[in-house]
Design goal:
Elements (H helix, E strand, L loop, with lengths): L1 H21 L38 H10 L3 E4 L3 H6 L6 E2 L10 H8 L9 E4 L7 H11 L5 E4 L2 H7 L13
Parallel strand pairs: 1-2, 1-3, 3-4
């Protein structure tokens, strides 16, 4: 019995050593001591490092969920149409930032929103932390005179990670 447990400990030590050596390959290495942002608990909004003074406020998942349940804020998905179709926050309007026309963007946005008031509460989102389309769309809309904008930077991914309802118009592969 004693040799079995010492063999097990030896095997674990060899496996740990091989794992540490394997991690020395730069293309696939993982930092031993990281400085990663903790996953959202919903208490604080996710704010990107590219956020600047004068940007619309960033909101947390809790605020986004509350606003959605109240049904008064308009949710705007800044991702491309295919991502929007695969899954979005229910009732969202698609304004795919990367596919906006080069000219008269303000007219396109106004049209996509059906001419609704520019002081209506609007929450703009995209995929999540790796996507800054919501920030860019919000900045543009602010320049066009929209006044009550908020950015939900956690986006559709955080919404889904919190097991909130996702509206899927088409079935898409993962």
């Amino acid at each position: 019995m004693k040799s079995t447990s010492s063999q097990l400990i030896c095997l674990l030590l060899v496996a740990m050593f091989l794992g540490l050596v394997r991690n020395l390959v730069p293309a696939n290495s993982i930092e031993y001591i990281g400085n990663w942002r903790t996953l959202s608990s919903g208490d604080e909004p996710i704010v990107p490092p590219t956020a600047g003074e004068g940007d619309p406020p960033f909101i947390s998942i809790d605020v986004a969920q509350m606003e959605h349940s109240l049904g008064e804020a308009v949710f705007i998905d800044a991702r491309e149409g295919a991502e929007f179709e695969c899954g979005t926050i229910p009732g969202s309007i698609s304004i795919p930032f990367e596919y906006l026309p080069d000219e008269n963007i303000d007219l396109y946005v106004d049209s996509a929103l059906g001419g609704m008031s520019k002081d209506r509460d609007m929450i703009i989102f995209c995929s999540g932390e790796e996507c800054d389309l919501s920030l860019h769309l919000a900045r543009n809309m602010q320049d066009f005179g929209y006044t009550n904008l908020m950015i939900f930077f956690g986006g559709a991914r955080e919404w889904e990670n919190f097991d909130l309802e996702i509206e899927r118009r088409t079935e898409c592969g993962e």
